[in-house]
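Technical note accompanying the year-one report. For the benefit of new consortium partners, we illustrate the data format agreed upon in the data management plan: each record pairs a sequence with a structure-token string. No post-processing was applied to the example shown here.
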Amino acid sequence: MNIEETKKIADKAEGWLTDEEGKTLYNLAKSCKGKGVIVEIGSWKGKSTICLGNGSKEGDKIKIFAIDPHTGSSEQQKMFGKVDTFEEFKKNIKNAKVGDIILPLVKTSEEAANNFDKPVEFGFIDGAHEYNFVKLDFDLWFPKVLNGGIIAFHDTTYWGGPKKVVADCVYKSKHFKNVKFVDSITFAQKVKQNTLKDRIKNRYVLLLKNLFEFAGKLHLPKLLTIIGKKLLKDCIKICGHRGNFT
């Protein structure tokens, strides 16, 4: 199923994912070569899972482990009260016809990691957004990601927890190169040791990301804001540091 058809189906599932973010997840999953599995931390009702599933099916059909206790993260419980999303998750996955490639694990990230022994080629972290939970997810799953594999985080712009974790553990780390961002998703390739050139590029992308976020906070006339964001996006794309999949 191509990305346009995937978007139509994913749009029917409740969730927080921009079109560009969905396209990014689709293409990252499609690019996996079977060296390891795909892991999603935090599935909610399956919106992002559908994008991952269809991307993988268009590629090498890598299995996706969708990890979520389906009781909602702490911030979701504050918004919605008592939460049980598993039945709706299953319904959305079935409707999207990706059930053959999605393996749901109804567990917390920590519970799943304790007994998970498969190498991970692509890990997408989108669980609870408080710093300590995001950092725990990173610490649990980073060692399981293969060198050359991809790790991605959602909501790394305006949410303090994910934003700080990617700044400290990805952009400023010696273990990542080719760091990019698409809207609120930051993703990077894991390496045993990056080069000085890689580290300089990563810091440069962090600067661009911070500028992109700052531009979104400016209280300017709407037209100027739109023009400014477009110019910044064009600059980032030209420089090759904002993920731009086709």
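Partners are asked to follow this layout when depositing records. The first strand starts at residue 37 and ends at 41.
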